[in-house]
Amino acid sequence: MMLEAKNVSKVYPSPQGGLPVLKNINLKIPKGELAAIVGPSGAGKSTLLHILGGLDSPSEGSVLFQGQDLRDFSPAQLCRMRNQKCGFIFQFYHLLPEFTVEENVLMPSRIAGKCAQARARELLSQLGLDKRLKHFPSELSGGEKQRAAIARALINQPEALFCDEPTGNLDSRAGGEIGSLIKKINLEQHTTVVLVTHNQELTKIADRVYYLRDGALVN
Ligand SMILES: Nc1ncnc2c1ncn2[C@@H]1O[C@H](COP(=O)(O)OP(=O)(O)O)[C@@H](O)[C@H]1O
Ligand SMILES: [Mg+2]
């Protein structure tokens, strides 16, 4: 199993006592599956995605990544796991504005102690950004920014790709292109994908759809 959530709950502290945001989530995502998590705003989708990707930890329960309990990882091991095995794509791209497209894409490889320039250029060319290497994020359209973010997410050849509303800031055409790209990566690289969205159209690329409502999975 690529990813497994076992009785995952999350409570955020608040002055009125704890705010329960995830309630006893159980799911299993096999290697190579494209799993979508859908639900209304505030349902807890981003919180769940962050917990599955090791960016946040549950209040109770556990997440297994390739069979390993994330609670057993030291902070440094967790960073290494995210850097080398996970790719992340966000609604607002999170590109670093003071770096060029190429430098943004190279960042995770530099953190891993490599410099994968040939791979970065190949990825950017495959994503139609070969003329944009030296451009800054502010010079790109939304769809181009997301394609640059995808190249960055793929630079270290991740086992799992975590996407949080990747089309949420794009028009339907650019969003459709991003959806097709995510599906292509999933099929060609066998990358496991966890895709959070409230875009029904985008769920068509999923092998499996989980519905999250008020912090609980429903059928
Ligand atoms: N860091 C935080 N501290 C407190 N409450 C939070 C925090 N992050 C999210 N929440 C709350 O948790 C709930 C779920 O948020 P989120 O996971 O972002 O939902 P979604 O992505 O489905 O819109 C919301 O009520 C939100 O206000
Ligand atoms: Mg969200």
What does this structure look like?
The protein has 219 residues and is an alpha/beta fold. The protein has one domain: Rossmann fold (3-Layer(aba) Sandwich). The protein is built from six helices and ten strands. The strands form two sheets. A six-stranded mixed sheet has the order 6-7-8-3-9-10, sandwiched between helices. Strands 2-1-4-5 form a four-stranded antiparallel sheet, covered by helices on one side. The radius of gyration is 17 Å and the shape is globular. The model has no long low-confidence stretch (mean pLDDT 96). Bound molecules: adenosine-5'-diphosphate and magnesium ion (MG). Adenosine-5'-diphosphate binds next to β2 and α1.
CATH superfamily: P-loop containing nucleotide triphosphate hydrolases
| Structural domain count | 1
Distance between the termini: 22 Å
Number of strand segments: 10
Question: What is the alpha-carbon Rg in Å?
Answer: 17 Å
Uncertain regions spanning at least 5 consecutive residues: none
Helix content: 25-40%
**CATH fold-level label:** Rossmann fold
In terms of quaternary structure, what is this? single chain
Strand order of the largest sheet: 6-7-8-3-9-10
The computed structural class is alpha/beta
CATH class: Alpha Beta
Mean pLDDT comes to: 96
Strand content: 25-35%
Q: Looking at the structure, what is the overall shape?
A: globular
